[in-house]
Fold this protein.
Amino acid sequence: MKVDSYRFLPRSFRSYYEGRGPFAGEDKLVWAPFEKRLQESRIALLTSAGLYLKRSQPSFDVERERANPEWGDPSWRAIPAASKASDLGVAHLHINDVDLIADPEISLPAHLLERLAADRVIGSAATEHVSVMGYQERSLEGWRDTTAAEVIAHLRSQGVDGLILAPA
Amino acid sequence: MPVLARWIERAGIPTVVVTMMPALAEERLAPRVVGVEFPYGHSFGMPGDESMQRHVLELALRVLAGAGAPRTRVDLDVEWPVPLREAYRAWQPKEASPIVKVLLETGRRPG
């Protein structure tokens, strides 16, 4: 089966995404070989669903986005793997959050990854995964200048061998 | 998101992007891509369906660890188990996003 990338997208938005080519300055291939066996590797997850810890972290700034619709909050949150669904909030104005609130595993399957570690499919799961909010300024300036380096440092501090990213 | 994956990959951490828009991720030269024909917000499947979520996650792990070269794309062979019209409505926010409101009010097209 070949996935139709535009199946769930409003028709008028297709031209926004189709045929745009590489991002400016990002036209060379990049590659980091996966060196270890999966069963010996530590894996982390990154979602762009705008998940955050309701009791201890600020929400992504949706009020500023409402005031400036071409802006999106470029910050990130560390999400402990043991977080329960009831610990998590969703701040993302571009998707219906009902299913995400009911079961955050549809975007950040942290508990499932723990089970795969218990089943020896992977070596271990990161203790803290990563959440961003996927709607960003076209330039990706905030992600490029700040967030990417912070997320990379976080992943290194976790000893991660590979990352699964899931755009919301 | 494909660009963020590239920056992380460039730092030496292998990545795979699980996305409902694999064509975009390919154009943006994400190193490894898993395509899923699922509604937005549901990269790993239906809420409460651990079997479906595990199927997607295990495919992502296989592509992450097993791809031999950049521009690897593998599409998941699973159809969304909800009629298209219903699923299309269900993923969208109850209130139009700020940028969509602007586009609707001004008649501008995206992009």
Remarks:
- The two ends of chain A are 21 Å apart (CA to CA).
